[in-house]
C-alpha cells in the first residue's frame, strides 16, 4: 500500500483558481505554483528535497491531472527542488510536452524549469491533452506588472540567405499551409520541387540535407533547443527538421506568404 500523501509547508489551490499565465500574487522567491485546468493545484516554497507530485490518482498526488483518462499515469511526473531550482521529471508511461515542441520521456533525466510561466501538456486518450500550468516565482517575488500601453516586442526572425529560405519553404511546405499535424517533406520530395524551380542549381536530396544541416547547426549555436541528435535522442526520425521548422515559423522567419517563392499554394 502506498503511503498517504502529505502537504508539508504547502498550500492547496482550489478548483477554479485563476490561470497562472498572468503570474501569481507576491510569494517567496523560488516558490512554485502548479495548477491543473479545472482540477485545482498546489503551491509551496523552495527547500531542497521538496517534491510536488502530479498525475491521475488524486489521493496520491499534490495536483490531479487527467483524472478520468487512463492514458495518464497515476503519478505521471514530479517537480523536485534542489540546487536552488525546480526540476521536472517524468515518472509516467507517456512523454510530457513542453514549450517549443520539447518532449520529456520517463527514461530521461530531470530538467530544470526557468523562472516564470511554463505550460506542460500530458497526452491522453483520443487526442486529448491535459494542461498543467507551472509558475516559478522570480527573485523579487512579485507578480509581473501589466504592460497594457507598452509597445509590442516584435518577433526576431533569423537571418536566412535567399537560397536557404527557398529550400526551407520547400521542406516546410506543410507547416506554412497550416496543416494541423505537419511533417517535413522528405529530402527527395523537397529536392525535386527545388530542381523544378531552379533547374541549374543542382539540387539533390544529399545537397539539400547538407544545406539544411548548416542552418540547424547555426541556430543550435544560438541556443535553439532540439536541433542536435544528442538533444532529441534516438530514434531521431523527423525530429530535427520538425523542431527547426517550428522554430522558423514561430520566429516568423518563415510565413505562409513565402510559399509564393515556389508558386506553391496548394
Describe this structure in words.
The structure is a single chain. The protein contains six helices and twelve strands. By secondary structure, the chain is an alpha+beta fold. It has two domains: 10-136, Tumour Suppressor Smad4; 162-262, no CATH class. The strands form three sheets. The chain has a five-stranded antiparallel β-sheet, with no helix packed on it. A five-stranded mixed β-sheet has the order 5-4-6-7-10, with no helix packed on it. The protein has a two-stranded antiparallel ribbon with strand order 8-9. Helix 1 crosses helix 3. The radius of gyration is 22 Å and the shape is elongated. The relative contact order is 0.12. The model has no long low-confidence stretch (mean pLDDT 88).
Which SSEs are present, and which pair or pack?
Blueprint: E1 10-13, E2 32-36, E3 40-44, E4 51-55, E5 63-64, E6 77-82, E7 85-90, E8 96-98, E9 102-104, E10 111-112, E11 116-123, E12 129-136, H1 162-171, H2 173-176, H3 187-197, H4 205-221, H5 229-232, H6 239-250
Parallel strand pairs: 4-5
Antiparallel strand pairs: 1-3, 2-3, 2-12, 4-6, 6-7, 7-10, 8-9, 11-12
Amino acid at each position: 500500500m502506498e503511503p498517504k500523501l502529505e502537504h508539508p509547508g504547502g498550500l492547496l489551490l482550489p478548483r477554479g483558481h485563476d490561470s497562472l499565465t498572468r503570474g501569481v500574487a507576491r510569494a517567496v522567491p523560488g516558490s512554485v505554483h502548479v495548477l491543473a485546468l479545472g482540477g485545482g493545484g498546489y503551491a509551496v516554497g523552495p527547500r531542497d528535497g521538496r517534491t510536488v507530485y502530479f498525475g491521475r490518482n488524486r489521493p496520491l498526488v499534490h495536483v490531479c491531472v487527467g483524472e478520468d483518462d487512463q492514458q495518464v499515469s497515476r503519478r505521471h511526473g514530479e517537480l523536485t527542488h534542489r540546487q536552488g531550482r525546480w526540476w521536472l521529471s517524468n515518472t509516467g508511461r507517456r512523454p510530457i510536452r513542453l514549450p517549443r515542441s520539447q518532449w520529456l520521456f520517463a527514461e530521461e533525466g530531470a530538467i530544470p524549469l526557468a523562472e516564470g510561466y511554463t505550460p506542460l501538456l500530458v497526452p491522453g486518450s483520443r487526442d486529448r491533452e491535459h494542461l498543467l500550468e507551472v509558475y516559478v516565482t522570480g527573485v523579487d517575488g512579485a507578480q509581473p506588472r501589466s504592460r497594457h500601453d507598452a509597445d509590442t516586442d516584435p518577433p526576431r526572425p533569423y537571418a536566412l540567405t535567399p537560397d536557404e529560405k527557398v529550400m526551407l519553404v520547400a521542406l516546410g511546405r506543410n507547416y506554412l499551409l497550416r496543416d494541423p499535424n505537419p511533417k517535413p517533406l522528405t529530402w527527395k520530395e523537397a529536392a525535386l520541387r527545388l530542381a523544378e524551380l531552379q533547374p541549374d542549381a543542382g539540387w539533390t536530396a544529399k545537397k539539400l540535407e547538407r544545406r539544411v544541416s548548416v542552418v540547424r547547426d547555426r541556430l543550435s549555436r544560438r541556443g535553439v533547443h532540439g536541433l542536435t541528435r544528442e538533444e532529441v535522442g534516438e530514434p531521431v526520425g523527423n525530429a530535427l527538421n520538425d523542431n527547426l521548422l517550428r522554430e522558423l515559423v514561430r520566429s516568423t522567419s518563415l510565413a505562409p506568404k513565402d510559399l509564393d517563392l515556389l508558386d506553391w499554394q496548394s
